[in-house]
Amino acid sequence: MTQLFEHQLAALAHPDLLVRATAAHDGGPGPRTFADLAALRRAQPVEKVRKSEKDLTDTERSRLVGAFTVLNQSGDFGKLVAIHADMGHHQHRMTNAPDDLGARRFLPWHRVFVNVLETALQRIHSDVTVPYWDWTADQQVPDWLSGVLPTVVVPGAMGGVIRVTRSPGSQQDLRRRTAKLDEVMRSGDFMSFVDGLEHIHDLIHDWVGATMSDLSTAAADPLFFLHHANVDRLWWTWHVTHQNENPPLTGDDAVMDPWRVTEPTTRDIGNFHYSYR
Ligand SMILES: [Cu+2]
């Protein structure tokens, strides 16, 4: 024991190590206090990769389903479902007006919403991310999710108990509903892009049917978040080549209530520390 201890001391006394050990304290950028360390860690959160649900391992799938279950049992999942059910947040197109507020908020609002859910899941298991359901590649309800049909208690005046069900259409029908996606991805301006994408998104909610087809219950289906991660991924893909095309929002309209995130923050997914693969 003593020998080992002395060996370690000798290693620590190595001039090279001593130089490196003191360098950060000589007015350099290194942390000086434990508060500095904490701030440093906060400033460099781990990047989380959102993968296709097809590419998740069995472990990743059961981890995700487990985290959903714990979040649901805590009541926090139901609170998120209640937030999405409140159309007062103007998060979907409500009128045919070209400049409809909900249409302008649809993408940034749901980006924040999925991120809030993902962060809540990560508090339960730090390795969880929300995978995306690429409905052009996996033209069915992902088979590993087909048995995941939770019962969700939603608080509030409009709340209640939601027993998640689905009544998906055929594969051919799903293909037909997504047929215009390539055209949408070629849109030149933000409003054309979001109008096309929100429309396809609506058609997929309807294709899944039952819980997913009703605005007041949709977010109770875990599949909702995989669907919206895909919508978010498509927005991110399009935005890479259309950096100057962003939702026209100012003042309170740009605040993604009930959160305080504003629209400019939502333009870069790096601000939320996730990426797509
Ligand atoms: Cu949706």
Automatic annotation (TrEMBL):
Protein's UniProt name: Tyrosinase family protein
> From which residue to which does the signal peptide run?
none
UniProt key word Lipid metabolism: no
Q: Give the Pfam families listed for this entry.
A: Tyrosinase
Where does the Tyrosinase copper-binding domain lie?
Answer: 221-232
Q: Which family does it belong to?
A: Belongs to the tyrosinase family.
Task: Write the record's keywords in alphabetical order, separated by commas.
Answer: Copper, Metal-binding, Oxidoreductase
This protein's species is Kitasatospora cathayae
Its required cofactor(s), as named, are: Cu(2+)
